[in-house]
Amino acid sequence: MRNLAAPIRQYAKQTNNTGDTRAGFPSAMRSRRVILRPITIDDAGAWKRFNNAITRRNPAWPIVPSMLYAKNELLHYDLMRERGTRTVYAVVERSSGTVIGDFHLKRFDHAKRRVEFGHALHPRVWGSGTTYEVLNAVRNASRRIGYTLWAKVESANIRSWKSLEKFGATFCGERTTTLCGRRMKMRYYEL
Fold first, then answer.
1. Residue (of 71, 167, 163, 77) closest to 125 by Cα position
2. Is residue 66 predicted with pLDDT exceeding 60?
3. Which of 51, 70, 71 is nearest to 61 (CA)?
4. What is the pTM assigned to this prediction?
């Protein structure tokens, strides 16, 4: 197995994740309780913690086995940002400065001014209104630049699609797809 630690350190010094400039999304967004800012390799520990906390609640969620894996994943996000295919924000709790989740903008369709979003938050903030604040901050930014947001959610993830509906997202339909080698029913929403 190849040692990835040295390339990770070298690449981390060269990167500067500043949001998706091609679409015009801002590099940071704010709400009363959270800040969304570009995720960096320095967030790997917190990213590993909140993802593994989700895994304990949802066994279908993949476990993050090591810090090296977490850093590698965050560097992969940075490469996708440079290519213009994905922008990942850290969701930071304003009161503590703790990274409590991430928010992805992906599958940019610049011609139709549409972008898919996805997010994951630490279970300790589930039900607290944090999802609403994050979605509101991103929706406001997307409206300012004329983009429509859309999401796909596993039909079994009732908590997630109910929160989208409560937020005012429009249900667009269901479709069965293969994700991570599993056949699953997905629900599609637009904001």
1. 163
2. yes
3. 51
4. 0.84
